[in-house]
Amino acid sequence: MSGRRLRTLVLREVRATLRDPFTMTILVTVPLVALVLFGFVLATDVKHLALGVHDASATAASRRLIADLGASGTFDPRPYATRGALEHALVAGTISVALVIPPDFDRDLNGGEPPQVQVIYDGGEAPLAGNAEAFVRSLLVRSGASLAPPAAAPGGVEVVTRALFNPRLEGKPFMVAGTFGFVLSFLTTIITAVSIVNERLTGTFDQLQVTPATSAEILLGKLLPLGAVFAFDVVVMMLVAGFVLGVWPQGNALLFVAVSSGYVFFSLALGLYFSATSGTAAEAVQKTVLFSIPLVQLSGFAFPTRNMPFVFRWLAEVFPATHYIRVSRAIYLRAAGPEALAWELAVLALSGVVFMALALRTIGART
Questions:
Q1: Distance separating alpha carbons of residues 198 and 105, to the nearest angstrom
Q2: What is the b/e burial string over 9-18, where b = at least 16 CB atoms within 10 angstroms of the residue's CB?
Q3: Do 252 and 317 fall into the same domain?
Q4: pLDDT tens across 23-32, in order?
Q5: Measured distance CA(316)–CA(323) in Å, rounded
Q6: Residue 54 shares a structural domain with residue 77
Q7: Which of 5, 277, 311, 321 keeps 20 to 30 A from 332, CA to CA?
Q8: Closest CA to 183 of 34, 297, 290, 300
Q9: Is the residue at 144 inside a domain?
Q10: 316 and 343 both lie in a single domain
Q11: Within a domain: residue 186?
């Protein structure tokens, strides 16, 4: 390999990229827009959720309970005079969660018996409903404990729960960490998928064929400039996620940038493979889209892989994006280090070798 030829190819690719403002705009803005949209829109946090309340007790204790629920910022209580009006609001979609306080709430509370309340929620929005139910249960337990008169602790086992990571159960860190995997997988692949096809159509790739440049030099000449741009995107996305969304990596940021930069080159190599094996740009894009559909569904970006049937869980392990998203979330949420991520990093490294070999062999066959 000649360093001089490689430097010439890298400079050529840099000039070609800079001369295309549309591509540069996509490379810089799309990752940031996707990060902000996914972080704000797809997060399953429960904040200021409309909570319908039918207070049949109408006592100081029940009013204090409602005030505690509203003070948390999680729910915005709305009073309803009858249970029928409450159920009608649920059907109409005006509220997402309903709370029914029975008439004997205060009597049971002062009598030493645990008072019972009914929580009704809209199960049509399953993730939000599950989080809403968990939040309202925890708030009711805490509020009920503060309302109850002091008494001797009953016998039995007291269960104390604590969330070790993400104690506030926010969905935003989960989505932000996963967005890195989605953006770096999809965008890098589709950008490079059309590169060789377009160059072949314009004749510039034929010019490379008659130069002394080797297949490895051509491959690196295309990967290094784009890889540098996407590595820069990773740093910018981290800063935007921190300053705009308030999500910073709990682990080593340098480790995250290093792993992400390596994953970028592997994804670029896969895109070059799609490009080199396609006759037209449309075919290359179609291959990328077909690859991206199972990527989104099976990589764990939006849906946990542990809930999938066995066959799909096995298939998800084939995708490098699955392992990268696990690494991303482990660093962002659990502050995991290299020793804890050894298996995932090994799978990513093996996948990278395979993708680089495929791209190198395909470009070599074309040259």
A1: 72
A2: bbeebbeebe
A3: yes
A4: 677 777 878 8
A5: 9
A6: yes
A7: 311
A8: 34
A9: yes
A10: yes
A11: yes
